[in-house]
Amino acid sequence: xxxxxxxxxxxxxxxxxxxxxxxxxxxxxxxxxxxxxxxxxxxxxxxxxxxxxxxxxxxxxxxxxxxxxxxxxxxxxxxxxxxxxxxxxxxxxxxxxxxxxxxxxxxxxxxxxxxxxxxxxxxxxxxxxxxxxxxxxxxxxxxxxxxxxxxxxxxxxxxxxxxxxxxxxxxxxxxxxxxxxxxxxxxxxxxxxxxxxxxxxxxxxxxxxxxxxxxxxxxxxxxxxxxxxxxxxxxxxxxxxxxxxxxxxxxxxxxxxxxxxxxxxxxxxxxxxxxxxxxxxxxxxxxxxxxxxxxxxxxx
Amino acid sequence: xxxxxxxxxxxxxxxxxxxxxxxxxxxxxxxxxxxxxxxxxxxxxxxxxxxxxxxxxxxxxxxxxxxxxxxxxxxxxxxxxxxxxxxxxxxxxxxxxxxxxxxxxxxxxxxxxxxxxxxxxxxxxxxxxxxxxxxxxxxxxxxxxxxxxxxxxxxxxxxxxxxxxxxxxxxxxxxxxxxxxxxxxxxxxxxxxxxxxxxxxxxxxxxxxxxxxxxxxxxxxxxxxxxxxxxxxxxxxxxxxxxxxxxxxxxxxxxxxxxxxxxxxxxxxxxxxxxxxxxxxxxxxxxxxxxxxxxxxxxxxxxxxxxxxxxxxxxxxxxxxxxxxxxxxxxxxxxxxxxxxxxxxxxxxxxxxxxxxxxxxxxxxxxxxxxxxxxxxxxxxxxxxxxxxxxxxxxxxxxxxxxxxxxxxxxxxxxxxxxxxxxxxxxxxxxxxxxxxxxxxxxxxxx
Lengths: 300, 447
Hints:
The structure holds two protein chains of two kinds.
Chain A: H1 2-7, H2 18-57, H3 61-66, H4 82-88, H5 91-124, H6 130-140, H7 146-159, H8 165-188, H9 193-201, H10 206-217, H11 219-235, H12 238-243, H13 250-255, H14 265-285, H15 287-298
Chain B: H1 22-56, H2 70-75, H3 79-110, H4 116-124, H5 131-141, H6 150-162, E1 172-173, E2 178-181, E3 185-188, E4 197-203, E5 227-233, E6 256-260, E7 266-271, E8 277-280, E9 289-292, H7 312-337, H8 341-349, H9 354-382, H10 386-391, H11 397-400, H12 403-412, H13 418-446
Parallel strand pairs in B: 4-5
Antiparallel strand pairs in B: 1-4, 2-3, 3-9, 5-8, 6-7, 6-9
């Protein structure tokens, strides 16, 4: 819209002939050609690596070794789902996928529940030291995961919960909380005070206000958060690598094959593609929430 | 960020004045109840470990002996950890600035195209993928063999256009009659005068490398007033006699043959026919040499070793840019949308060029957004782990390592040194503290 307004010559002078306008338009199109060409090139450049991974996953190792994934354009007959059939018959991979789903779902639901409670308290409840505690939460936002690995490793061993899905979920929950509390508190605080006061006058308890008012109104923020948290936990390698041995999500299962990268491409490529299809689907389905959450988290 | 509530018909109510006494304690208890789960999680999983790691960093590997600052001394004396520090410095210097700049350029350019949604989706997509999967994706791109790695395949196409590989990259002389090295070209040992015949026998040519149009080699008759000869594959099943053109031995077509004078200057060149024969006609009397130029033996492009010790870090940086450019672009696009069109319009009306508008109006107005992107990337870069472990093959991880990776390798990747591992973690933590202070200051300004 603004584009049209800006480029309409009528905005500045009315006495222009149709000829001039047409030639200006042609000039503008020519002027824009380089930008279009450059961006098409960049866009393709950005897609090629993922396309390469996908096509590689559809080639038998022998075919890939003699001529890379681009051979499919000249010889489409080399494409096959054989590698996918093989990984879905591979127990290590299928159980890794189940583990990944469990971790990602648990690691999404739990922190959101806990953060919603805390976010509400920080936004709408009065208690001494509220601002200081919130500053502490912001401080925890940047604590590197590495600071917790060694003590939690020892703690998990002491408690006997090392190498369990549950212990991985708890770790993800804790490290997801600072951002989740930060995001939800900032969203909840934007809910009109009048609504809250009216409900209080009507005699609603804080818990009722939280469940009936805050959660429904906070749904957009909760959705953004859910997507982030899901992607983080689904995509994690470091935490699972540290606190799991038998409990392997898909990233760790692939990681264990990396030592023989060249020899295992027929397993690594399809497994990697499967591991990124779910996040991509989530991303494309909820792109709006994803971007909004990103902006809420970084630009204030 | 967007509309956060609905308009209601309920009249505004002023909150009742705060009453002391038991009501207040009930309220505090309620707040405590809402906060308790978060406090427990943050306390046990972040606050306690942070303190514990500090403490642990002053003890030795087994955690039994107090060693003061020995672990920190190791930080700055161990070669691998020093490499990690050096690499992380490169990451810090290059990546935040590069990602912000590329994001800015993309953001400004997308405003000029009609298909900006498609472009933004393509560039932003890697953000959804795990850094680990992105690493594997790029490891495929970086495979050295140009028949498998896309990047080297692309370079091979360009390179072969300008300097194609030789037809006979592996050939060697078949007898002492031909001397020299493939790198400098092969020369017939005997000097020739007009009327001389040059048999240039070569071996060590795979039968698959013999050109398809090759036929039985023929040693030509001497040429009056000229020099001729044959280039052939001096080998047949069973071996044959070196230096002699025999039946079942093929000519080598397409070979560039040079005629050189006594001073080794090339006077003339010609190309061998399908039976391997070649001829230089009308040669002045004198002494000449016949040679096969070094181009014939040029090695085909073998591929750049992207994941060797020298290039591995730049290679990983590029794939990291691939992941994060979309993030920078999207945040900056949002910042651009907030710039009033009138401001830009006014500048243009006043006669500013597009570049001046960009440099003097857009960028200064975007400064806060650019800062946010830059700082976000700074924090990310200090924690980078997955992509390095995914792309760098085990043999070059010592060269590609960064602090977060080295912390993990030290504590969990074999040597199990919790003392030095803790010290590296503390070091990373100290590096992010300035950023932490910045975040808190921004928040307090807001409140």
